[in-house]
């Protein structure tokens, strides 16, 4: 028989950032993380203002922003505080600990100064994860793209590393993971099944029901919509209903 999923409030998450994320989800009735894969400060600020009330975290790729500056972060922090969401840098670190530490703390992005959450490929092994200090680490244990190399063997080892490391609060995957980690699932879209560059999409219903995901990550489904705010609200509602439904399966 299929294993029943654990409700967010019953997950034993000890990392303070993980706890905060769960608290925000329950308060806002949202499992939605919006991916702001936009390349200018103006677009990102506008997007954050529009979707802020519907999301628990805003995911960024800082290194695609053409006019990145400290001012963007100051503005985003302000919006995040007002609208209550976390800032999530999807850096996908994947190097030895020393290099990751330099990338995390020293680049022009100063990720360590502002990111509540960062993604890391655990490919460098357990000790490489130690450099992220109090920032919440989310490991990439399986990717959403066609032909990804994250097979069962890698997945199992990556989960083991994530469970052993004290600062990993969750993982990105397209399947169920142990209950002591929060599951984040990208590759979610209600009007497309994929793109021409290998991305594969599932619906919110599927990822909550089959993967028992805790948080869905939506990029183009929201930021490419004609009405971004309405799209965010739609995904929020559909995600939350799908989550509640999955508790009864
Ligand atoms: N992302 C994936 N799949 C992964 C890991 N990360 O799509 O396995 C990220 C992408 C992008 C977002 O880097 O920022 O999630 C998905 O965007 P999309 O909804 O526009 O495809």
UniProtKB/TrEMBL annotation:
* Active site location: 90 (for ompdecase activity), 92 (for ompdecase activity), 95 (for ompdecase activity)
Give the GO terms filed under biological process for this record. 'de novo' pyrimidine nucleobase biosynthetic process; 'de novo' UMP biosynthetic process
**What pathway, per the record?**
Pyrimidine metabolism; UMP biosynthesis via de novo pathway; UMP from orotate: step 2/2; Pyrimidine metabolism; UMP biosynthesis via de novo pathway; UMP from orotate: step 1/2
Q: What EC class is this?
A: transferase
Q: Which reaction does it catalyse?
A: orotidine 5'-phosphate + diphosphate = orotate + 5-phospho-alpha-D-ribose 1-diphosphate
Has the keyword Signal been applied to this entry? no
Which residues are in the Orotidine 5'-phosphate decarboxylase domain? 31-235
Q: What is its EC number?
A: 2.4.2.10
Record keywords = Decarboxylase, Glycosyltransferase, Lyase, Magnesium, Multifunctional enzyme, Pyrimidine biosynthesis, Transferase
Cofactor(s) demanded: Mg(2+)
Binding-site residues for substrate, renumbered to this chain: 37, 59, 144, 199, 219-220
Any single GO molecular-function term of the entry would be:
orotate phosphoribosyltransferase activity
Q: Which family, according to UniProt?
A: Belongs to the purine/pyrimidine phosphoribosyltransferase family. PyrE subfamily. In the N-terminal section; belongs to the purine/pyrimidine phosphoribosyltransferase family.
The record describes its quaternary structure and partners as:
Homodimer.
Task: Describe the function of this protein.
Answer: Catalyzes the transfer of a ribosyl phosphate group from 5-phosphoribose 1-diphosphate to orotate, leading to the formation of orotidine monophosphate (OMP).
Protein name per Swiss-Prot or TrEMBL = Orotate phosphoribosyltransferase
What organism is this sequence from?
A: Faecalibacter macacae
> Parent protein range shown?
203 to 451 of 451
């Amino acid at each position: 028989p299929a294993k029943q999923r654990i409700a967010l409030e019953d997950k034993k998450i000890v990392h303070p950032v993980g706890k905060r994320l769960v608290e925000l989800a329950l308060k806002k009735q949202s499992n939605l993380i919006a991916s702001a894969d936009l390349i200018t400060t103006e677009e990102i600020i506008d997007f954050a203002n529009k979707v802020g009330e519907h999301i628990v975290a805003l995911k960024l790729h800082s290194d695609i922003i053409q006019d990145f500056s400290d001012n963007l972060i100051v503005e985003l922090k302000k919006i995040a505080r007002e609208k209550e969401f976390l800032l999530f840098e999807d850096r996908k670190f994947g190097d030895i600990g020393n290099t990751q530490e330099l990338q995390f703390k020293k680049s022009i992005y100063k990720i360590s100064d502002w990111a509540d959450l960062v993604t890391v490929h655990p490919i460098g092994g357990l000790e490489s994860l130690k450099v992220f200090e109090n920032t919440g680490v989310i490991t990439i244990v399986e990717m959403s793209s066609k032909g990804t190399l994250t097979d069962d063997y890698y997945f199992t080892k990556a989960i083991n590393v994530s469970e052993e490391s004290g600062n990993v609060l969750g993982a990105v995957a397209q399947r169920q993971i142990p209950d002591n980690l929060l599951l984040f699932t990208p590759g979610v879209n209600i009007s497309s099944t994929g793109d021409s560059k290998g991305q594969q999409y599932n619906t919110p219903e599927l990822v909550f029901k089959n993967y028992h995901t805790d948080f869905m990550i939506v990029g183009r489904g929201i930021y490419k919509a004609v009405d971004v705010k309405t799209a965010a609200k739609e995904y929020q509602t559909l995600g939350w209903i799908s989550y509640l439904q999955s508790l009864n399966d």
